[in-house]
Amino acid sequence: MAIDLSEFDHPAWLTAAGAGLGYLLILAVFTVALFVVPYVVFTTL
């Protein structure tokens, strides 16, 4: 059975994917800033 992916060619899908990746990137930055940086600072003291 062939799957037709042409219905996902609309620019809204690219926008949704970009928004999702942006949120994941921001979440990763906040996680590093709030948990990894304090851990490194307190373990080196």
Describe this structure in words.
The chain crosses the membrane at residues 20-42. Keywords: Membrane, Transmembrane, Transmembrane helix. This protein has one helix at 11-44. It is mainly alpha-helical. It has one domain. The model has no long low-confidence stretch (mean pLDDT 92).
Helix count?
Answer: 1
| Share of β-strand residues | under 5%
* pLDDT < 50 runs, ≥5 residues: none
- The span between the termini is 61 Å
SSE pattern: H
Keywords: Membrane, Transmembrane, Transmembrane helix
Transmembrane segments: 20-42
Task: Quickly describe the structure.
This protein has one helix and no strands. By secondary structure, the chain is mostly helical. The chain crosses the membrane at residues 20-42.
Features:
mainly alpha, 45 residues, single chain, transmembrane, membrane, transmembrane helix
Give the SSE map.
Layout: H1 11-44
